[in-house]
Amino acid sequence: DQQVKQNSPSLSVQEGRISILNCDYTNSMFDYFLWYKKYPAEGPTFLISISSIKDKNEDGRFTVFLNKSAKHLSLHIVPSQPGDSAVYFCAATFGRGGFKTIFGAGTRLFVKA
Amino acid sequence: GAVVSQHPSWVICKSGTSVKIECRSLDFQATTMFWYRQFPKQSLMLMATSNEGSKATYEQGVEKDKFLINHASLTLSTLTVTSAHPEDSSFYICSARGSGVNEQYFGPGTRLTVT
């Protein structure tokens, strides 16, 4: 049972444009969501997170939007840069550090120069 | 801050031997550490969760006698692959999480090749 789903295995975007990565979840108990970025042969890097009490969190070029009623979140990258090309993992958890984090399958982003 | 290291970054071993991978949180105390395995072009597969001073909790299908996990201190966890076989060849990644927070910080991974 996939509790966290990233239905798009890949996404291609032109440099300078917006990249939108989507994620859906099924467990209504999740109250904290995270995005990680991963380059090949490296460990994932934490990017940005959002608590369920918010619907938006912004950090530089990265913004995460949360729609609790739809059980959907998205990561926006504006403007996209070639260095953003990587695999992006959506993750969800609940409680304060008391539960394991469930990861989506990842979306590979290609940013074309 | 929030740096996690892994050692070695890559290792080649022969079938039947054991390999130990270390995961260290360098600038924070990791009350919980996680071990993941990633197959080519696939997502992260959680193998086990370990809390400092406690026995690790293994995910379904992961052999605890084959993948020995020790979380002896708040900054160090080790994964030992015992009696390694070629099918154990994979990319192993650890992550660490501090007390009362949700963010995990990942190590750079260890590429294991069993010949």
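Chain A touches chain B at residues 32, 34, 36, 41-46, 49, 89, 93, 96-97, 100-101, 103-106 (CB under 8 Å).
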